[in-house]
Amino acid sequence: xxxxxxxxxxxxxxxxxxxxxxxxxxxxxxxxxxxxxxxxxxxxxxxxxxxxxxxxxxxxxxxxxxxxxxxxxxxxxxxxxxxxxxxxxxxxxxxxxxxxxxxxxxxxxxxxxxxxxxxxxxxxxxxxxxxxxxxxxxxxxxxxx
Amino acid sequence: xxxxxxxxxxxxxxxxxxxxxxxxxxxxxxxxxxxxxxxxxxxxxxxxxxxxxxxxxxxxxxxxxxxxxxxxxxxxxxxxxxxxxxxxxxxxxxxxxxxxxxxxxxxxxxxxxxxxxxxxxxxxxxxxxxxxxxxxxxxxxxxxx
DNA sequence: TTAAAACCTATAGTAACTAGAGGTTCAAGT
DNA sequence: ACTTGAACCTCTAGTTACTATAGGTTTTAA
Lengths: 145, 145
Known about the structure:
By secondary structure, chain A is mainly α. Chain A has helices spanning about 10-15, 20-30, 50-60, 65-75, 85-120, 130-135, 135-140, and strands at about 10, 35-40, 45. In chain A, helix 4 packs antiparallel against helix 5. The model of chain A has no long low-confidence stretch (mean pLDDT about 85).
């Protein structure tokens, strides 16, 4: 039998992966990760393998993947063959939604900039922010989501 | 006394403002809007003034303002003087958060594009999506939110 | 008159956390 | 060895902006 590396409690795991303790517990509840074992006092203990798993999850979350997508990616990681196409599909779909969201935000940004700049240019005839929000004809063409 | 215009039930208001009925009820609960009165059968009835209010809320939501911010803007709309500066501050702050979010999404997009293009270029050495997610050194510098 | 549409309130779910309460275990210092 | 504070535990509920469902009432149109 191999000598086991020392296991770490949740706080150490948390610091190593830069993920909060309650979030790790939440991920356990969502079946994304599990402790290697528990101590006699029922405290979770994790190996290096779990740390790698958590870092994977964190990286994917930082990129905006949903927990459902991450669960799928974890399952795909374990498949010997043919998983790559599915992983690629998940990533490509997510990339597409990021692009869509980017376009939306660009449009919002332009309208907000216009709204804010009217005030800053010294318009004295009322409140341009509130008037712009009350003006629906101007915006109706511009954000159909 | 002036002749009142006919009041409309919630479904008519919903269609006129393109906001769902449950969402209107939710906005009422959040103190953003209230029915003019109720019918004998306890159904909400709204005037043209409430329609204008709902359109204001919709427009602001479409621009990404939070309900809290919208509540503040509505209060500011009623103030005779000095409200403009506060409204401008709310809008400018929101514009800033949109810009920050845009920059984040650009960074995410680039990393996802790189991840996806490796697969598409015919790399045969494993799954580039999953490997990239497991590779934390590459990403750690790139998305510090 | 009848049936369907529209209305009502109340509750719970969505996604991804986050906070707080009340209790137990562990680690470090004396 | 004892004490105390930190770290751990489970459970419940809150955050934000909706959305869905259940079960009932009212209104409308045929």
